[in-house]
């Protein structure tokens, strides 16, 4: 097998995240993303690693028996957003649950296989479930007409106009269509990522499910010489250039935006248009960055309701993108917590209630949900705007026992005087910093709930938690993102007694080097990181060699060969690079 080789095969299974597995005649595994079990596909090999390879999907030659007759969205083939559009929803749920169960069974201690796996809870809505979309301006092909929508699958530049997107409701689609038609008519050009010229960048739309309030934000550069921009972007074809310059909008930015606002307000919506905004962003990165926002109409926020609580949301607030699914997720977490936070009168809770830490608290949704049954809830979040929103929302809901602190969990928890009785963890996709996890474990709370949006990061952290005496009691998945490969997982952990007769010891004496704990990660954590991110397996010996090269302390290895001329294998360059990357990730170098 070599790079560029074309292979054909049937997808045996799909592992998280989105990794379809083909097994070749010689027994090798080939990973092909964006596939479904049972499909016969062709792929071009683009990566080769020891024992397996990766291929880029070229064509689905035969549909899977699992697929339905109809796709839910006409854009499913081109758009990079929804991988499982062709799968019936019950099969999507089954596949996601199987993926998470496999990861859990692989990491959970053999002696604890009686944990409860509660399957997966479905999203209350399978279509039109998103409350937020960031559409991008661009073109569908080089020098094509203006497009507004999502990136084409596998493309950094080309945009698919998704006027019939099924994961948002009708109001989103109408706002997209009105906006695209208006700026096409005015011949306003998009921001070109390579040339760094152009005006239109993104269209951010948010809509509350419970209140129906809508917020629309147009993100542009400050390049307002509109005829010049229109001409510059079409400079490769003279006739097109002349036409673009002739028809380009020649007014002021204020006039342009007033016209756009009027077009939006003239349309009919099922919801309520609450605010129309304009955000400036000259950052070269292809992300929505707020360098100043003006309110063109209404206000720059709206309200959403979850589980009886009210939340104020701004254009850039972090908030779960599936409001009804978030209620299922947080209700599941609350059920897991159960009797650990007993209810009672306000006086009972004030005297006997628990102190809860909500770590990686975002806008404080979980903290506020637990507030009525806790003596005090302390939320820690690194994004300052989210913390300010959490404080405002707690006040809005009349909750006075919530405290929110802005800062990195790793640094902040040392300065908190109170000690928690219970901890809720809801970290970002990459999981918990190993040093922060060690500090969290040292609180020695009897129970924790861990909410994860990336199961592979979750199982890495569970390995550490189990090694320190925590047992997995319950696991439940929640489908927050139908038609995609994403899945949320809620885990209940309980502090168990460490029985020395049941401890499995699978490490060399090198693994007892305490610097691994003091400065970032154990050998097993480094091995797991390298395997997950590169597919390479590295030995403790190789890790020790690279640690020495980096000037890190390494414990003495007493398991040396007794042969005088024994050859010590040296770490290959590709594995050295992978180990160094892991050491950087764990902040050891």
UniProtKB/TrEMBL annotation:
S-adenosyl-L-methionine binds at residues 320, 360, 381, 426. Residues 1-59 form the TRAM domain. The keyword Methyltransferase applies. PROSITE patterns: SAM_MT_RNA_M5U, TRAM, TRMA_1. It holds the Pfam family tRNA_U5-meth_tr. The keyword Disulfide bond does not apply. GO terms for molecular function: RNA methyltransferase activity. Transmembrane segments: none annotated. Keywords: Methyltransferase, S-adenosyl-L-methionine, Transferase. SUPFAM superfamilies: Nucleic acid-binding proteins, S-adenosyl-L-methionine-dependent methyltransferases. Belongs to the class I-like SAM-binding methyltransferase superfamily. RNA M5U methyltransferase family. PANTHER family: RNA M5U METHYLTRANSFERASE, TRNA (URACIL(54)-C(5))-METHYLTRANSFERASE. This is Class I SAM-dependent RNA methyltransferase. It comes from Roseburia inulinivorans.
């Amino acid at each position: 097998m070599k790079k560029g080789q074309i292979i054909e095969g049937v997808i045996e299974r799909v592992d998280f995240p989105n990794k379809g597995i083909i097994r070749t005649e010689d027994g090798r595994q080939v990973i092909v993303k964006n596939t479904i079990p049972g499909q016969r596909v062709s792929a071009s090999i683009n990566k080769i690693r020891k024992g397996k390879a990766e291929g880029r999907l070229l064509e689905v030659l035969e549909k899977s028996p699992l697929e339905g007759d109809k796709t839910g969205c006409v854009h499913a083939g081109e758009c990079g957003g929804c991988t499982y559009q062709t799968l019936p929803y019950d099969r999507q749920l089954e596949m996601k649950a199987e993926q998470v169960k496999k990861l859990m069974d692989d990491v959970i201690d053999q002696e604890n296989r009686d944990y409860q796996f509660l399957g997966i809870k479905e999203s209350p809505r399978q279509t039109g479930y998103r409350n937020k979309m960031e559409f991008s301006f661009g073109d569908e092909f080089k020098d094509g007409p203006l497009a507004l929508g999502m990136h084409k699958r596998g493309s950094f530049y080309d945009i698919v106009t998704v006027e019939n997107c099924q994961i948002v409701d009708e109001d989103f689609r109408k706002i997209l269509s009105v906006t695209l038609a208006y700026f096409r008519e005015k011949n306003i050009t998009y921001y070109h990522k390579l040339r760094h010229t152009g005006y239109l960048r993104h269209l951010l739309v948010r809509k509350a499910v419970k209140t129906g309030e809508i917020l629309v934000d147009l993100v542009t550069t400050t390049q307002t010489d509109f005829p010049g921009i229109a001409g510059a972007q079409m400079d490769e074809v003279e006739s097109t250039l002349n036409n673009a310059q002739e028809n380009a909008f020649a007014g002021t930015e204020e006039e342009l935006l007033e016209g756009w606002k009027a077009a939006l307000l003239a349309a009919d919506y099922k919801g309520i248009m609450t605010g129309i905004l304009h955000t400036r962003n000259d950052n070269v990165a292809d992300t929505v960055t707020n360098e100043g926002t003006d309110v063109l109409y209404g206000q720059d926020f709206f309200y959403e309701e979850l589980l009886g609580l009210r939340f104020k949301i701004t254009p850039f607030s972090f908030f779960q993108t599936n409001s009804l699914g978030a209620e299922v997720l947080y209700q599941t977490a609350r059920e897991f917590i159960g009797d650990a936070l007993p209810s009672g009168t306000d006086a009972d809770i004030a005297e006997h209630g628990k102190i809860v830490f909500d770590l990686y608290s975002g806008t404080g949704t979980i903290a506020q949900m637990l507030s009525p049954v806790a003596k005090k809830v302390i939320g820690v979040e690194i994004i300052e705007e989210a913390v300010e929103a959490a404080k405002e929302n707690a006040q809005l809901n009349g909750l006075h026992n919530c405290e929110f602190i802005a800062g990195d969990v790793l640094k902040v928890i040392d300065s908190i005087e109170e000690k928690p009785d219970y901890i809720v963890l809801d970290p970002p996709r990459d999981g918990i910093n190993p040093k922060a996890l060690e500090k969290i474990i040292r609180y020695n709370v009897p129970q924790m709930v861990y909410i994860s949006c990336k199961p592979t990061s979750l199982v890495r952290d569970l390995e550490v938690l189990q090694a320190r005496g925590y047992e997995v009691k319950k696991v439940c998945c929640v489908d927050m993102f139908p038609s995609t490969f994403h899945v949320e997982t809620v885990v209940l952990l309980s502090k168990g007694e460490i029985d020395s007769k049941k401890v499995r010891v699978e490490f060399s004496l090198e693994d007892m080097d305490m610097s691994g704990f003091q400065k970032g990660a154990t050998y097993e954590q480094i091995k797991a990181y390298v395997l997950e991110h590169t597919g390479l397996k590295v030995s403790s010996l190789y890790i020790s060699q690279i640690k020495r090269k980096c000037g890190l302390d390494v414990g003495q290895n007493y398991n040396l060969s007794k042969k005088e001329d024994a050859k010590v294998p040296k770490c290959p360059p590709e594995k050295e690079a992978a180990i160094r990357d892991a050491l950087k990730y764990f902040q050891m170098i």
